[in-house]
Amino acid sequence: MCVLFSGMLLNCNAVSSNTSQNTAQNSQLQREWMLTAFGSYSKSDLIAKDAKINLTEKAENGKIKGTAFMGCNSMFFTSEFKNDGTVKMSELGSTLKACQDMKLEMDFSKAFRSVTKYSVKGHFLTLSDDAGNQMEFIAADWD
């Protein structure tokens, strides 16, 4: 009986530790992120377009519903960030406004679908694909 109780106690502790690790990870990710580096676009181009992603929705079942804006349409997606540094983007869509310059939006949408890895270092988020292409963000709430 004592062995059984000890096993149950250890299992509860492991679940609690994993949950707190996910909570800490989500608190780092669940913010608004301004795009600062992407392909051949200059930082000033990205700032002028107000290029950003928003991951502030509450996480449900390990997934965060997010939005993105690259100067014209509102984009939406579901993200799943794993503890091993991998990320899966799914359920991507957008509004369908026709704007004069949609190149950034189209390039971002194509690249964003291919993202497979992420890293958060301080106030910086980097998303990358399997070919090593990266997009870099800074937390909007960082002064």
UniProtKB/TrEMBL annotation:
<dbReference type="Pfam" id="PF03724">
    <property type="entry name" value="META"/>
</dbReference>
<dbReference type="InterPro" id="IPR038670">
    <property type="entry name" value="HslJ-like_sf"/>
</dbReference>
<dbReference type="InterPro" id="IPR053147">
    <property type="entry name" value="Hsp_HslJ-like"/>
</dbReference>
<keyword id="KW-0346">Stress response</keyword>
<feature type="domain" description="DUF306">
    <location>
        <begin position="28"/>
        <end position="135"/>
    </location>
</feature>
<protein>
    <submittedName>
        <fullName>Heat shock protein HslJ</fullName>
    </submittedName>
</protein>
<dbReference type="InterPro" id="IPR005184">
    <property type="entry name" value="DUF306_Meta_HslJ"/>
</dbReference>
